[in-house]
Specification:
The complex is a heterodimer of chains A (564) and B (90).
Chain A (H helix, E strand, L loop, with lengths): L10 H28 L4 H6 L6 H12 L2 H14 L1 H4 L4 H11 L1 H11 L4 H9 L4 H32 L6 H50 L2 H10 L3 H4 L10 H17 L1 H9 L3 H33 L3 E2 L5 E2 L13 H8 L1 H5 L1 H43 L5 H26 L13 H12 L3 H10 L4 H17 L3 H10 L12 H15 L4 H19 L5 H11 L1
Antiparallel strand pairs in A: 1-2
Helix pairs in contact in A: 1-10, 1-18, 3-10, 3-14, 3-15, 3-18, 4-15, 4-18, 6-13, 6-15, 7-14, 8-9, 9-10, 9-18, 9-19, 9-20, 9-22, 10-11, 10-15, 10-18, 10-19, 13-20, 14-18, 18-19, 20-25, 22-25
Chain B lengths: L6 H21 L12 E2 L2 E2 H24 L6 H14 L1
Antiparallel strand pairs in B: 1-2
Helix pairs in contact in B: 1-2
Classes of the chains: A mainly alpha (564), B mainly alpha (90).
Chain lengths: 564, 90
């Protein structure tokens, strides 16, 4: 299919690519081993690296966790499909950067003082709601973590399918290898390994983003050639709401406001705040995050999508939908544009050896992007399930060693579940295929759930007016609405009842009728599912809090003292 | 108790919050309608140049906040004190 079309004909070039990728994977396992050797044992060390991470590692691991295959494959794919409008989505990154300091330093302060490990520890301790609210926070973590892991494994599969296109099972093998290596180094070394590998992967990821943009501009004859080609793109590619019409201004604004919030208060990032050595660490991390990451996005990888449109013009399906150029892949294969650019442009531009060496570096960058997010989320889900479910409800008497081993088993189980879903979704005609069509879609789906923790977080860290019942009811309402307005109910209804387009609306099953109502609401108010969930979440939280017992004054004061 | 923020810091803090709100509303909100046409600016699509402008604004905001508003180590000692007290009481 893609990059590897070069490989069989270019034996020595193939060796370079394999050597670079092989070396990279060995380095990751090596870092996992070093992390294990440096560990001091115990749950807190396994999940928070002893709360001693310095600012360089913290900044890099926060960035690597925030940006995933979304950055190197999803974002250029979305720009390729919709045009310049998606480049503006990079302005969500500064919001996340500000939150690293504004929320992160308060979360760090409370976590350090009271010994918290997971987000649920803080939330449930403040509201003194140790069962229902804890389980809901774990559910949020799983609803965020699993799709995010799936997204990364999918990217690994797509990359392998490109590299080894001559093999029928390349996608499956790629996803399996990526999942095994990732799970292995987390299981070996815990947070320390995850953070160290993230640091390396972040450097590769950022370099890859910038390099891809530079390569695209150079391959189009320099800046003037690039801008000249871009200026001739169709109007839909240069204006809002983009070629598909998806990126209406309300959608763009809600995505840019709420997705970074979800990306920063999701459990994996929350635990990185706990793991930081001090506030200075988070202060510097926030600065680096805003400047470097937004710049890599806007000045680097976005060029690939735009240039890709000029090089491989979009087509149209029989139904009138936007379709990728046949060179890029099937009608919906927008995410592969970067890999196609690597195949088509770099070897021709730089010669087969140097071009493929650079392409191999980019392949490693894509893998780094995918693995750095998959490892963080697997690690976080493991912490949530082990500490908040196993330790609390199943075996409270378990020792540290047992807990760490349960955490490792959870990592294996979540990896396996995510992998099975990715493999199922890759089967032509599968009910999951539509849901997993684009990497960005999976990322937005996941973030919609994490955002629902925002009202509780703001209440604990700033307001301290809410109640336990209000927090619980608000979170339930938010999750139900976020789920209902996501893409998954459509997939479930489709899997249950098949194609209902020929059935009269009033004769359709109740679930399909509800889906139609939601569809009408989404059309009338084109905002993201995260916002659809957040509105009832806040309203219910506020109303229930007005009529239920407040959090005791001494606890509110204790948190106020810590978060001021 | 931590020191009360000075009036200058409060003013700067408010100004930066407003600047972030303006940057978001202009960069990815209704402000887009001001430039939503397929023109170019210095050779690059107008909408893309608009994004670069607001990125520059965010850089100024975060550098200002880092240098003037976010204290280098605001409550490290205090947190450890409270943490010690908490552990003792437990």
């Amino acid at each position: 299919m893609i990059l590897a079309q070069q490989l069989p004909a270019e034996g020595s070039v193939g060796v370079i690519a394999f050597a670079v990728v092989g070396l990279y994977l060995l380095v990751l396992l090596g870092l996992g081993w070093i992390g294990y050797r440096r560990s001091r044992g115990g749950e807190e060390d396994y999940y928070l690296a002893g709360r001693g991470q310095g600012w360089v590692v913290t900044a890099l691991t926060i960035m690597a966790t925030f940006f995933s295959s979304f950055a190197l494959m999803g974002a250029p794919g979305m720009v390729y499909r919709d045009g310049v409008v998606f480049a503006l989505v990079s302005l969500n990154v500064p919001v996340a950067g500000y939150l690293i300091y504004i929320l992160g330093r308060r979360i760090w302060a409370v976590g350090a003082a009271r010994g918290y490990v997971t987000p649920a520890d803080m939330i449930c301790d403040y509201y003194d709601n140790q069962v229902l609210l804890r389980l809901l926070v774990v559910l949020v973590g799983i609803m965020f973590g699993v799709p995010y892991v799936m997204m990364q494994l999918k990217a690994g599969g797509q990359l392998a399918a490109a590299l080894f296109h001559q093999y029928d099972n390349a996608f499956a093998v790629g996803a399996i290898v990526l999942s095994i290596i990732t799970a292995l180094y987390i299981m070996i070394g815990g947070m320390r390994s995850v953070a160290w590998t993230d640091a390396l992967q972040c450097v590769l990821l950022c370099s890859g983003m910038l390099l891809a943009g530079v390569a695209m501009v150079v391959s189009m004859g320099g800046w003037s050639g690039f801008t000249s080609a871009i200026s001739e793109l169709p109007e839909g590619s240069l204006t809002v709401p983009g070629n598909t019409g998806f990126w209406q201004v309300p959608m763009l604004l809600t995505v840019c406001l709420f997705i970074p919030i979800g990306g920063i208060i999701q459990p994996a990032q929350w635990m990185r705040f706990y793991a930081a050595r001090d506030v200075e660490t988070l202060r510097r991390s926030a600065l680096v995050f805003v400047i470097v990451l937004t710049g890599c996005f806007l000045l680097g990888i976005m060029m690939v999508g735009l240039g890709g449109q000029a090089l491989f013009p979009l087509g149209e399906t029989a139904e009138g939908n936007v379709a990728a150029h046949p060179t890029v892949g099937g009608p919906g294969d927008f995410d592969q544009v970067l890999i196609v650019v690597l195949r088509e442009q770099l070897p021709a531009l730089l010669g087969p050896t140097l071009g493929m060496a650079l392409a191999a570096g980019m392949i490693v960058a894509i893998m780094a992007a995918a693995m750095s997010t998959a490892d963080s989320n697997l690690h976080a889900v493991s912490a949530l399930v082990t500490r908040d479910v196993y330790d609390r409800f199943i075996r409270p008497q378990a020792g540290d060693r047992e807990r760490v081993w349960v955490g490792r088993l959870v990592i294996m189980a979540v990896t396996l579940i995510s992998l099975l879903m990715v493999l199922q979704g890759s089967v032509e005609g599968s009910s999951l295929a539509g849901f997993m069509k684009m990497i960005v879609g999976l990322g937005l789906f996941a973030a919609a759930f994490a955002v629902q923790l925002l009202p509780l977080t703001v209440d604990i860290l700033f307001l301290r007016k809410g109640t336990s019942a209000g927090a619980t009811a608000g979170l339930i309402a938010g999750l139900i609405f976020a789920f209902s307005f996501s893409t998954l109910p459509g997939v479930i209804v489709g899997a249950m009842y098949g194609d209902l387009s020929a059935v009269a609306a009033d004769a359709q099953p109740l679930a399909a009728q509800m889906l139609n109502v939601i569809g009408t609401a989404k059309s009338a108010v084109p905002i993201h599912a995260s916002a659809w969930g957040l509105i009832p979440n806040v309203i219910v939280f506020a109303l229930v809090s007005l009529t239920t017992a407040p959090v005791p004054a001494d606890r509110r004061q204790a948190f106020a003292d810590l978060t001021r | 108790m931590p020191p009360t923020p000075s009036p200058q810091r409060r003013t700067l803090s408010t100004a930066l919050v407003i600047a972030v709100a303006v940057a978001m509303l202009m960069g990815v909100g209704p402000g887009i309608y001001l430039v939503n046409r397929p023109d170019s600016f210095l050779g690059i699509p107008l909408l893309y140049a608009w994004g670069l402008l607001w990125y520059a604004v965010h850089v100024v905001i975060v550098v200002t906040a880092y240098c003037c508003l976010w204290p280098a180590n605001p409550q490290g000692d205090r947190v450890s004190e409270i943490g010690d007290q908490d552990q003792e009481s437990a």
